[in-house]
Structures are given as structure tokens and as C-alpha cells.
């Protein structure tokens, strides 16, 4: 299959406007007499609000409204950005109010002020008098499940959010038959998304009483639903508009600020109110990546065959449910179609603690599990004295594999080729030889890690997408898609797909940038690396409908059967002769203006995609560890992806750059640090929170082995989240290779690395050598 | 046929936002660093631009660009807001440039300045140095056709724009067979629309090089085309957005300012530029109603039967073609299906003069012809000593009549009933008796006049309309229609239609207010009283498609045939048993979230309406004429309409209020006065131009005789323009009745009335009585 536009390095359609500063984000819009909303946050990690007195705040000139839980509907709602389920047992957990009467973490929203400007709003916050009854708090997951632990959600019997797991095969048999059972415990930290644009929204009530919300979100249609649910309003009376979005990474796949900004406007008689989080607020009151503690018991045969995998996973979910149970499930699911285990038993325990809320973040549980599993496999290989690459390759699944739980089928599988490609790129064998007997302070090593990932959520959740195409008089088109551009480049890829099907150059495709739930075709949003795969299906469907309508007009004019016709570069041609029949513009003009046949060409359609495609990949890293400082430098890093046909290499490389950068931070420096005594976040800003900067980042290399995936509308599979899954374990395994120490906890920052080096005696040894 | 929502007095959907000032018009939007565009206008009615020096203007700080015809494409284009025709012979006349090199009226646009603010722009205009070669000018139509008259458009052989007329029957035979041939000459003045919101627009070039125009227009999709044509750009690269519009009356059915505002932005490197006309500019450089001089030769039989009508019409079109030929044609066409003439010969001569451009205005030629014809008929009746009502009734066409030229069929006809109703309402017979032998200074009389009008332009032009409906999760819908709300209430009526078909209360229909050519379904715009009739057809089509999809879901669930099901007030019911099956919301939720059947319900469709429906009506007026001052007071006025089923009585009454008010001004006070020497407009503002105020206006009464029109989707016919057609001759005939003087020229302002009274000797006579 050859493509004309798909697969080409088309420039981002929104590139120029974004680099010139003309693109409009939520904060670039404003309404006349816009008010400012601010939130009073709990200073305590766990406390009952005994009393609130807002009298003084309300009396301040310029204050329009002060609201507390007393002023709002007593409706508990769920914030996770999932498609609604008609089956009540598949719904998210309704455990929060818009403003709470019980603080469950430092920063929990207690009251809100609406004022004419920010200064007055800040002043008013200080005038709100709150009497708290402070309760003992829990920060660690282990503490949450202790007997007599304080209960965070009083309506529940304990702090366990979910223990829903899975089991395939017969784990007891495999454990019995094992040559050896390997054990391992791996731990990941709580980290934050750090998208460039903080959560920001504004809202007003229109003259017909409908609530309008302009928000930086990944999921406008879901925001509509959840605001409706939180406020007890009919969903059709909520309208959500999404302008350009400056990143989300899953943090905006949660309905975090929209119910409150709507409530603020309602309290201010429908006037427009802006509620924009500061970076500090974004750190504490949005979502984090779950810290997990993963324990393995792995049954391996004598010949190094992986037999059974018994996993326990203790997941720290923070104060509210959000995506909790689902992320834990995903952690136990995404890796399943990778190695050919006979049996996998997965037992997660997701618990509430008095920490900021964990939710969706790029990889959705997979980076944690991949770090654990791929570290564990290297540990096993090392113990068995098998080459870690050969060990993995010997245990990989094969094309045609059917995941026993999801029933998703592996229809394309070139991970072995990816592994070979990465090995070659990083010069694995050469470096292995070279680094065999290192001495000195700085030691180098190479490591790798594999992953598998799904394309969307099928069959766990609904996968529907909508698209609309309108053809103009010159044959150019507008494309409206429900799938949400949040910076990843999806609009460009969808534009390529439409251009491909209709035979247009890309500059004749105008993708509608702003989403408005009133008119944008329905789509559940941007998450689960579903866009190119799921929404790609509907873009193709809509474009093929437009193409068919064009060819019907042409066929009616020239008498030839539609099958004999094609559209090539804006011309209708007779396929077999290559003969030009007329221009696409001729047909478009006829569709608009013919007195008899007039019928402008559009398509407005949806696709219910009841398939999945499993994508794969591998990271290779080379590191240098300074055993005197504990500093790890990543010298080279390669991600090689099995993501089917790549729609746009430039954009794909961009995904890898971003995902690997996130993986580097995850491996080496990022973690949210909490004061044990108070539960307060100590590093709530980008100075103290150690995000990787460009100075810390090596050249990030990517390669793609492209094999047509039959389930993809253009042979494509997922890529977006995939890129961030395997860097951390690859780096960890490279460090193991370099200095012989396996770090089972990330981040491997200089302090933790140095402590372990010291503990191991390596420094002393090193010192001796240098003498 | 009974309706639940259609025909009800639903409040305007945009009512609250408009009375509270929250509705957003073009001037309520702005872009960062918006520039201001201003135009240098010719002080001469007819002059060649010999030289322009813009150096000084360009040098002024704050000036971004100065443009003249030299900077713009040399493309002549037409501005009339008609659907494009694939047949070149049916197109409008391309006779103008965006900026001209030859001034053809005082106010013609010579150069434009783009500056950072209005003051600087005004200053810069004064710094532009223009050298003119002044030519002799023509203001009167009679002068335009004289031999050796100066030629206004040098590429043409003379000043005649069009003489395209029509002939049905054999006029010579009827003239030969006539008992008597009546002659009459009637003349109307040039008037202006005076919509509340002047023409205003702003434009910028987006990052992909597409021109975006936000404009107060009746015809966004046509603006797109004409801007493309004027600038020589592909139409798909133009995007036009229409916010709320503060009236148009046909003046915004012309592409007046948009090509220039786009050119201004292009000259300013794509920055946003606002170009808003002042009231004074709006008077001179938009469009006017054509002044016409209509001559009749009317053949009448012995028994008062109208046999043949021979019409000459001299039409003053001003400086550019605009709608010229088309308005003249319409003047000769709209009245045809009213009286049962054997033959009608219509010979218009539309000429260029050096006056502001005449174009479309509510009634589109019909008010002129109706004034002439209905005055003429009263004159004939008077001479034949027949009651003017009986005279008309005896000559009316009958249901089933087929217009010999258009082939439009009269499928519903209750004008006779309207005539009777109006006669009764005004107490005609009683007043006729009472006013028989009046003496004194103030004399009263009653008069009436009939009209016929089309619903849209079929078969003259394409009549297509588009609509899109999106159903929300709660069963409420959004309705996007191409038909343009410009203040007339069409959005409300379309909302009612959709609600009717889908079984919704009106507050569950959300009509999308802003039009955007990128996504709004195609429609040629708001004109020709086509909206309710033509766009009504597509709203019904779309709503019935949505209804069908809902019932298909329901039928699949319950097993009953779709025909057995209905939607009543948001419930799906089994028709025959009246049994509730489920709620509409259940179906909508299923359409969004069912894992298998998911397929959100939408419709995106168009209708090519190849039909017309002829509407009728009559005005009755009672006046009191002060023969000492020449002042005419309208004491009572009634419009009775045959417009099929009325969709919304409140809105229909609003149309009558506005249309009759316009008719009152047309009859009594409005006229644009030009200085003969210079061609300059003397009354270019609302103080000197005598628009009727609320103080001048009697209670305007309306009545409707409703008969289902089979061609209308809900039995409806046109109404909007109709209301303004017959008031002027009704008033004129009432004056004739009061004082025995027939005014053959409007406006009948005190000066002209008094002059004629004096001339007639009536004042002297009156004086005697009083002694």
C-alpha cells in the first residue's frame, strides 16, 4: 500500500501559529467584565471543616461571591475522563464534592471567592475564617491498610479503593513446576505531568441559562457530562469549548477545575469568571502519577522459559479516586501481550492516602509496571547468566497471539526486529565488550527494556469517534473531528488522512481547531493513545464518504462506473487510462450550484471501533555513572517502535522526544516530596521539582520498524504514550550493567545512587584503584 | 394539521440576550492590536483619478498601510448577493473595483488607510493627495439616456444597465379591444434602509494564509465567494463569520465592505483590521432603494375587467450595477399573479447615474410597482365610478392560477378573505359614509391596496438551504442552519420547526447563533423572504431524519414497527395505545454509549427547493389630511396577510410592525436629497433624513388569514418583505379619498402635499368655508 500524503513529513498545520504566538489558548480569550475565581485550600492533610465564616470576605468591596460546600449541590461525582458506561458497575467512583466539608490532602478546595480582580480575590481568601478539626493523616500506602488506620472516606469501611485484579492460566501449577522462583520488589515515585499550560478555564451562563465553559482540556465532551453530573444539570445545558491546549499528558483527562469554575459563575449570577491554576496549585490539586510498589514471584523453567508471574501491586492513589482503580488495572494489563507466560496473576491494592490525587498520566500505569518487570527480567537474566536480550527474545509472544483477557489479537508484530535494530544502533555488542572490565570513577554500561501497549481502550471501554467534512467550492475541505488536539499533532495527522482519501494536497484541508461540544462531532477525547488509531477510522470513513459523493457526481456526468474513477491531485481521472475527466473543483461547483443536482458535499459520521492493535517497542540506553557523586549521565538513548505504519515521521519523532524526556526525568530526577509531619508538598514548583531540562537531555534517537497493521485504517498502531514506557528500566539496566548495582526504586538521583554505591562498597573499592 | 410548537407564540430564542445587551455583534468582538481602516472618498460625482500621492500619509507615525487601486488586483467584480450561477448569462454585472480609479458618485472609495487608531487614520486620509479630472455628472435617470450624455462606465456604449423585460399574452390585442385605455405615471424616491447597525467588519489573515472576515452580513456564504472573486483567491481560502446582525433589509445582501476590509488586512501583513462605516458613510456608500418612474397604459373592458397592462419603468440605478437589473425585473414580476390580466408587457430601462448605488431593499422592486399599480387602479376605479375594493376583487386571479412566466402555481389563495377582513377591521363602509361630505381643514379618508409576493426566488435563482442537527445525551438538540438570522427571528422559527418534528419542547432546541462558512451548512442567505419557506424545508428534512434515527433505535429495542411509534414531549410512545415505551433520553444515551449500537444521532443535509409559494395581502389605511399644512396623519392602519400557516404570531406581528413602519416612511417622509450641482447627498444622517419615529407611528395592526400552503413544509408562505409593499399606495389612496387629490409621487411630505393642495384650489376653498 502506498500513500501520497499519509506517511509524509507534513508540517504541523498549527505550526506557524504556535511558533508566532498567534495560536489562541484559553487565557488568550476574555469576556467583558471577566471576574476572577480563587480557591481557599486546606493547610491540613486530613481535617473536618467544623465551621466556615465567609461574612468578612463577602463584605470586601469587589467580592462578588464566596462559596463553600454549603452553597453547592450535595452530589458526589467522579472526575475520571472515561466514556460514560450504561452499566453502573463499570462507572468511576463518585467520591468528591466540588468544595469539600472534609479536607483529605493539603490543598483540598474548601471555599472559593469570585472577585473583580486577583488581588481582591486573594485578600478575600484571607478573610474567610475556617475552623478545622484536624485528624491524623496517612501518606504511605502501607499505612493506609494498617488496622485502625484513620478512614479517609468515612462512607467506606477502610481505605482500600480497589483490589480488582486478574488471573490467566494456573499460577499454582507454574510455581510448582518452576526450576526457580525469582522474587523482586520495585518501587516508583509520585511524579507530576508538568505540561506547559496549567489548568485554566473560564465560564459564564448564557442568556438561555446554559453554562458555557472554555477550558484547557483533553476531553471536552466528557467535561460536559461531568459538569452536568456535578451540578445536577441536564447535560445538554452545558457547552464546553476547547481552544488550543498547551499539553495535558493525562492530567487534563480528568475534570479537575470545570465544575468549580461553573459553580463560580453560577454564584456570580452567570457573569464570566476565570479560574486559572498557578503552577503551585497545579502541582497539588490536579493529578499525579501513582506511586506503586510492585512485588514479583516469577516462575522460570530450567531453560530460561518464563512460566508464571505472580504480581502484587500496592498503589498509592492519594485522596480521591479519579482514575485510581483503572490505572492499577492498566498496569497489570498493558504488558500482558509481551512475554509468553503460561500464567499471570495480578493482585493490585489501590488505597486512599492523604496525598494529592493520582490519576491518568502518559502510560497510565505502564511505566511503573515496565520499570518493575523489565528491571526484574534483567535481574533474572543476570542471575541465570543469560544475555538479557536473548532472554527476552526467547520469551516473546508471536504474531497471532490472542491476549487471554482482552481477546485483543496481535496482528502485526515486529518487536524482534525492533530489538535487533536498537541493538545495532547502540552498538550493543561492541560496547558490551568494551565496558567489560571497567575501573575508575566513571563507568559505562548499556541496558534495554521492552514494552507492549494498546491502541485505545477496547474492550475495556467504549471506543467511538466522530468526524465531519464539508467540501468547499474549490474542492478544499474543512475537517471537524471530535478527537482532541492537545499539542501532539493529531490535527495534522487527521488532515493527512483526509487528504489521502480525497486526493487533495494537505493545504486544501482545513482542520477546525477549536472544539465546541455544541457542534463538534462526539469523541471521548485524547487519551489512551487512541487518537490516530480510533479517530483515524472515522476520518477515513468520512473522507471515503466524501470521495464517494464526488465520484458519484462524476460518474453521473461521464457515464463511467465509479470504480473506474479516481481522484488524483484534485483531478477526476479514469483510472485505467489515466485520462483526466474534469477537475474536482468542477464537481464541487456543481454540487453547490447546479439548479437540479445541487447538494453540497458533506459527511457527518461516527465510528464505533471495536478493535485494538497492540504496539511494541524497546529502549536502549548507554549511561555513565560517576561513582563518586552518584550522578548518572545518559550518553545515548534509542527508542525503536513497532507502531505499524507511521503517519508522519516528524511528528512521531516529536512524540519520542517528549516521551523519552519524560522517561529520563522519571528514571533520574523527578519525584514529589512530602513533609511527613504535615503532608505538605515540599517541591511544588519547577525550581525545586527536578524536571529534565534541555541541558540534562542527550540526543534522543528514534527508529520505527513499519509493518502494516490490519486493524488500523492506514495500517497504524498507537505511539503517543508508548514512548515514555521503557526508558526508565533501560537506564536502570544500563546502570546495573555499568556498576553491577540494580536500583529497584526510581528516581535514581545522585543522592540515592550515591547512598547505594557507598553501601555496596564500590566507592571504597574505587578509591583503592585510584590510589 | 395541528402543531404543538409551530404556530405558537414562542419567545425569541435570542430575546433575553438582545434586550440585556449580552448578544454579540461584530463590533463586540476584537482582536489584540486591532488596526483601524478608513476610506478616502471622492468629493466629485464623476471624476477620473489622474494621480494619487500617498507618500505623506504613509510617513505618518501609526499608519500601517495606504492602498489605492494600484495596489489591488485589477479584477472587476459584482457585489449583488445572489447565488452563483453556472450559466455565465445569468450572472451579475462585474463593474467595480475594490478601490476605483474613476469616481462615479460622491463618496466613491478612492483610497484606504490602515492605522493604529481612528484619529491617525483620519489624519492620514487628509494627507493623501489626489488629482482629479472632474467630468460632467448625471443624477436623473432621464438625463442618463440622453444623447451625448457622459458615459459613466467607459467600457459600455451608453448608460443603460439593462432593458431586460417580459411580455405575456398579446398586449396589442388587448389595447385594441379595450373599452378604455387608462394612462398614469407614478414616481418613487430614492430611500435608504436605515438598519440600526451600520455595515461593519473586521478581517485578518490566519497563520495558514486564509482570510478571515467577521461581518454584519445577510449572506456569509456569498461574502466568501465574492471576496474570493474580488481578490482572485480560491474561495476555500476565505472564511466568513457572522455574529448577531442588527438589521439589513437587503442592504447587507450585497458585498459592500468585505473585499476592502480583506484587502486592508492583506496590506497590513495580515494583521486584524476593523472597517466600520459611520452612519454618514452608510448613507452614501452602501445601497439605496431604486427610484422608479413607472408609466402605465391599461386596457379595461366596458364592465371593468382589466385586459392588458403595458408598463414602462425608468429605473435609477446609481453608479454601479449591484442588484440593478434584477430589482427592475422583480418589480415587473412580483405583482403578476395578483390580477387576471390577459396580457402584461413590461419594459424596464435601468440606467447608471452618478448617485449612490441602488440595490436590494425589502420588497425588491415591489413597493415601487405596488405604489404605482395600486394608485393607478384607484384612479381607474374612481374614473369608472366603481368601488375600488369591488373593482379589485372582480379582477383577482383564482386558486390554481399558474404564472405564465415563472410557472409558479397558486396553491393557496385567501386574498379575497383578507380583503374582506381588512374592510371589516377598518370599518370601511361606516367611514366611507361618514367622510362623504367633509368640510373643514382636516379631512379624513380610507384607502386600501393589495399585493402579491413570492416565497424565495424560484425559478429565477437557485434555492438551496442546509441544516445540521446534533442530538445531545438528554435528547436536546443543537440546530445549525445556513439561513441567516439578522434580527427577523428566523432562528426561533427554525427552532420551533425542529422541536415540532422531534417532539421536543422549544427550550431543548439550541440554535447555533454564529455562522461560520467553514462549518455552517451552505445557504445563500437571508433575502427574498425565502427563509421560513426555503430553509424551513431543510430544517424539516433534518429533523425528520433525526426523528427517524430515534425511532429506529426505539423500534430495534421494542420490536414494534417505526410507524407505530411517535415522540411526544420527550417520550417514545406506541401511537395507537398511547403507551410509553421509554424516554427520548434513554434512546439518546444508548446512541452515545451503547457498546455495540453506539452511533450519536445527527443529521447534516441540504434541500434544493424547486418550488415557490405565492403570498398575498392587503393594507387598509385611514388618514387625516390637514389641508392648511399639508400634513398627513395616518389614524389607523391594518395589514391583512395571506401567508399560509403562521409559524409564530408574535414574530409575524413584529414583521408587520417593522414593514408597515418602513412603508409609512416611504409614503410620507423618506427620501434621499441630492444637491443638483454637486451630486452630494444633503441628508446623510438620521436627523435630516426623515425616518418615521415612534411619535409619528400609529398603532400598526395585523391580521392573518391562515390557509395551509401545500408547497410549504409546514403550510407556510413568505411574510418578511411582504409587509412593506402595500402601505404606501393604501395611504395614497386614503388621501385621494380624503381630499380628492391623487399623489403620484412619494413621499407625500407636507411640502409636496401642500403645494398640490394649493395648486388644486382646495386651500382657498377651505379658507372660504372657515370664514
TrEMBL record, chains A, B:
Pfam families cross-referenced by the UniProt entry: Ald_Xan_dh_C, MoCoBD_1, MoCoBD_2
A GO cellular-component term linked to this record: xanthine dehydrogenase complex
Keyword hit for Protease: no
Keywords: Molybdenum, Oxidoreductase
GO molecular function terms attached to this record: iron ion binding; xanthine dehydrogenase activity
Keyword Phosphoprotein: no
Aldehyde oxidase/xanthine dehydrogenase a/b hammerhead domain span: 20-136
Source organism superkingdom: Bacteria
Protein name: Xanthine dehydrogenase molybdenum-binding subunit
Amino acid at each position: 500500500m502506498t500513500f501520497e500524503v499519509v506517511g509524509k513529513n507534513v508540517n504541523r498545520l498549527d505550526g506557524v501559529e504556535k511558533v508566532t504566538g498567534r495560536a489562541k489558548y484559553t487565557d488568550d480569550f476574555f469576556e467583558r467584565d471577566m471576574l476572577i475565581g480563587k480557591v481557599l485550600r486546606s493547610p491540613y492533610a486530613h481535617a473536618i471543616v467544623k465551621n466556615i465564616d465567609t461574612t468578612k470576605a463577602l463584605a470586601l468591596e469587589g467580592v462578588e461571591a464566596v462559596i463553600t460546600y454549603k452553597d453547592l449541590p450535595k452530589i458526589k461525582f467522579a472526575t475520571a475522563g472515561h466514556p460514560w458506561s450504561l452499566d453502573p458497575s463499570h462507572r468511576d467512583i463518585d467520591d468528591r464534592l466540588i468544595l469539600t466539608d472534609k479536607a483529605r490532602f493539603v490543598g483540598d478546595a474548601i471555599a472559593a471567592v469570585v472577585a473583580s480582580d486577583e488581588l481582591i480575590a486573594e485578600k478575600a481568601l484571607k478573610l474567610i475564617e475556617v475552623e478545622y478539626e484536624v485528624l491524623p493523616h496517612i501518606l504511605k500506602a502501607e499505612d493506609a491498610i494498617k488496622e485502625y488506620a484513620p478512614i479517609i472516606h468515612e462512607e467506606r469501611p477502610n481505605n482500600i479503593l480497589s483490589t480488582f485484579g486478574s488471573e490467566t492460566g494456573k499460577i499454582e501449577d507454574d510455581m510448582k513446576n518452576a526450576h526457580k522462583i525469582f522474587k523482586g520488589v520495585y518501587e516508583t515515585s509520585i511524579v507530576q505531568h508538568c505540561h506547559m499550560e496549567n489548568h485554566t478555564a473560564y465560564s459564564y451562563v448564557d442568556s438561555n441559562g446554559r453554562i458555557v465553559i472554555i477550558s484547557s482540556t483533553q476531553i471536552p465532551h466528557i467535561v460536559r457530562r461531568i459538569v452536568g453530573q456535578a451540578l445536577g444539570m441536564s447535560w445538554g445545558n452545558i457547552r464546553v469549548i476547547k481552544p488550543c491546549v498547551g499539553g495535558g499528558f493525562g492530567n487534563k483527562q480528568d475534570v479537575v477545575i470545570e465544575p468549580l469554575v461553573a459553580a463560580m459563575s453560577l454564584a456570580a449570577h452567570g457573569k464570566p469568571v476565570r479560574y486559572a491554576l498557578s503552577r503551585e496549585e497545579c502541582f497539588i490539586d490536579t493529578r499525579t502519577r501513582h506511586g506503586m510498589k510492585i512485588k514479583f514471584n516469577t516462575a522460570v523453567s530450567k531453560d530460561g522459559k518464563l512460566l508464571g508471574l505472580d504480581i502484587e501491586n500496592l498503589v498509592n492513589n492519594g485522596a480521591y479516586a479519579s482514575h485510581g482503580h483503572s490505572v492499577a488495572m492498566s498496569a497489570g494489563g498493558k504488558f500482558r501481550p509481551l512475554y509468553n507466560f503460561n500464567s499471570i496473576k495480578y493482585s493490585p491494592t489501590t488505597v486512599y492516602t492523604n496525598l494529592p490525587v493520582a490519576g491518568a498520566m502518559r502510560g497510565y500505569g505502564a511505566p511503573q509496571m515496565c520499570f518493575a518487570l523489565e528491571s526484574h527480567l534483567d535481574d533474572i537474566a543476570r542471575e541465570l547468566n543469560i544475555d538479557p536480550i536473548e532472554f527476552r527474545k526467547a520469551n516473546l509472544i508471536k504474531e497471532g497471539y490472542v491476549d487471554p483477557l482482552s481477546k485483543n489479537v496481535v496482528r502485526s508484530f515486529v518487536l524482534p526486529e525492533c530489538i535487533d535494530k536498537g541493538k545495532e544502533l547502540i552498538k550493543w555488542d561492541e560496547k558490551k565488550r568494551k565496558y567489560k572490565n571497567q575501573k575508575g570513577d566513571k563507568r559505562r554500561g548499556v541496558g534495554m527494556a521492552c514494552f507492549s501497549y494498546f491502541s485505545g481502550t477496547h474492550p475495556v471501554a467504549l471506543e467511538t469517534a466522530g468526524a465531519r467534512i464539508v467540501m468547499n467550492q474549490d474542492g478544499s475541505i474543512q475537517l471537524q473531528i471530535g478527537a482532541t488536539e492537545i499539542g501532539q499533532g493529531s490535527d495534522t495527522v487527521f488532515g493527512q488522512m483526509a487528504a489521502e482519501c480525497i486526493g487533495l494536497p494537505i493545504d486544501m484541508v482545513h482542520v477546525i481547531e477549536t472544539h465546541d461540544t455544541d457542534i463538534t462531532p462526539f469523541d471521548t477525547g485524547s487519551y489512551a493513545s487512541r487518537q490516530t488509531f480510533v479517530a483515524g477510522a472515522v476520518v477515513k470513513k468520512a473522507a471515503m464518504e466524501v470521495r464517494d459523493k464526488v465520484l458519484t457526481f462524476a460518474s453521473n456526468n461521464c457515464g463511467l462506473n465509479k470504480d473506474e474513477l479516481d481522484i488524483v491531485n484534485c483531478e477526476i481521472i479514469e483510472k485505467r487510462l489515466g485520462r483526466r475527466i474534469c477537475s474536482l473543483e468542477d464537481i464541487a461547483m456543481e454540487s453547490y450550484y447546479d439548479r437540479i443536482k445541487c447538494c453540497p458535499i458533506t459527511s457527518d459520521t461516527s465510528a464505533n471501533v471495536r478493535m485494538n492493535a497492540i504496539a511494541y517497542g524497546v529502549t536502549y540506553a548507554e549511561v555513565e555513572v560517576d561513582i563518586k557523586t552518584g550522578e548518572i549521565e545518559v550518553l545515548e538513548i534509542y527508542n525503536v517502535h513497532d507502531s505499524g505504519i507511521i503517519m508522519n515521521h516528524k511528528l512521531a519523532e516529536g512524540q519520542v522526544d517528549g516521551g523519552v524526556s519524560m522517561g529520563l526525568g522519571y528514571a533520574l530526577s523527578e519525584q514529589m516530596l512530602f513533609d511527613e509531619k504535615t503532608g505538605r508538598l515540599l517541591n511544588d514548583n519547577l525550581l525545586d521539582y527536578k524536571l529534565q531540562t534541555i541541558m540534562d537531555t542527550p540526543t534522543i534517537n528514534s527508529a520505527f520498524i513499519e509493518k502494516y497493521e490490519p486493524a488500523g485504517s492506514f495500517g497504524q498502531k498507537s505511539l503517543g504514550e508508548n514512548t515514555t514506557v521503557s526508558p526508565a528500566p533501560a537506564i536502570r539496566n544500563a546502570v546495573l550493567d555499568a556498576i553491577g548495582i540494580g536500583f529497584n526504586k526510581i528516581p535514581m538521583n545522585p543522592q540515592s545512587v550515591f547512598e547505594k554505591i557507598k553501601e555496596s562498597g564500590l566507592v571504597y573499592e574505587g578509591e583503592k584503584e585510584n590510589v
